[in-house]
Amino acid sequence: MMIKQMTNRLHKVRQDSPLIHQITNYVSVNDCANITLAIGASPVMAQDVNEVAEMVSHARALVLNIGTLSSQTVEAMIIAGNRAKSLKIPVVFDPVGVGATMYRTEVAKRIIAEVKPDVIRCNMSELKVLCGLDTEVKGVDSIALSDGGETAAQALAKQIDGVVAVTGQVDIVACKDKHCHIHNGHTFLTRVTGTGCMTTALVASYCAVGDTFVGAVSGVLSMGIAGEVAVESLLENEGIGTFKVRLMDAVFNLNDDIIKRYARVTE
């Protein structure tokens, strides 16, 4: 059932080409824009406080990503987030590196409290920080064990009355009354900067054309499948540079047959 819903959602994204407003970080902004185009949606990366409210009014989904923080960007996120919520535009929050510094953690908690995002897309370390659990943080990378991840994801989903998507060795997508596990992906996805941010952009693209639980599953699954397809295409002397290009191609070429052949989802 979930696979069928995902393939339908992919067709809807490519048919509608929804505008996805992304206030994201300067490390991965170009990759996020390109992966949005690759899946069939349309990116806009406006982040000045003087235009974000107007820009998000034209969008079908909003991404808030705190990978490279600045006080001006934080205020733009709050303005855009509140405007999106007032218009019932889904907000997808990526709390990159939360827990690395007190400021980053305070900002993440402020966005959750004031904006109330519809989806949080995070890794296991970020999830545990947001849930107040003891965990280790290494910059913006996840080094936390997956123990208790499902319980924590469902607890955070209930707190925000939304969806939590946790990417890791086994991905978890949860809302207050259901969850699923995604067993796709490859370790090369951890060797390229920005794949988490790109996954968030994919989640937003799918959420723009339907409910957020299926949207979150579809976005995470798309990246996992694309990672596997990209690795399988590599020749003997090709590495992560070629992998990144092939990853973009794999998202662009994603179709029903590939999804049905590769998807490993347990509900």
Compact overview of the structure:
The chain has one domain: Ribokinase (UDP-N-acetylmuramoyl-L-alanine:D-glutamate ligase), CATH 3.40.1190.20. The chain has 11 helices and 11 strands. The chain is globular and about 45 Å long.
Jot down its keywords.
267 residues, 11 strands, two-stranded antiparallel sheet, alpha/beta, single chain, 11 helices, UDP-N-acetylmuramoyl-L-alanine:D-glutamate ligase
Strand and helix map with partners:
Layout (H helix, E strand, L loop, with lengths): L1 H15 L2 E5 L5 H11 L2 E3 L7 H5 L4 E5 L5 H16 L4 E4 L7 H14 L3 E5 H7 L6 E2 L2 E2 L6 H12 L2 E5 L3 E5 L2 E5 L12 H13 L4 H21 L7 H13 L3 H7 L2 E2 L1
Parallel strand pairs: 1-2, 1-3, 3-4, 4-5, 5-8
Antiparallel strand pairs: 6-7, 8-9, 9-10, 10-11
